[in-house]
Amino acid sequence: MSRGVALELDSMRLAHYGNQIPCLICNEGNTPDAESCRNCFAPMILAHQARSKHTKPVMFAALGPSGVGKTVYLGMLLDMLSRQPKHLQLSARGGFSVTLQHSTLAALSRCEFPTKTPNEPDRWNWVHCQLRSPRHRQPVEMVLPDMAGEALFEEVDHPRSYRVIHAMLTRCDGVMILIDGTKLQSGSLDEDYFTMKLLSHLTEMGDDPKSSWAMRPVALIFSKADQCDSCFEDPPAYAQRHAPGLYRICQQRFHRHRFFAAGVAGACAVKKEPGAEKQKVPLRVEPRGIIEPFEWLVDNLRS
Question: Has this prediction a pTM greater than 0.70?
Answer without folding.
Answer: yes
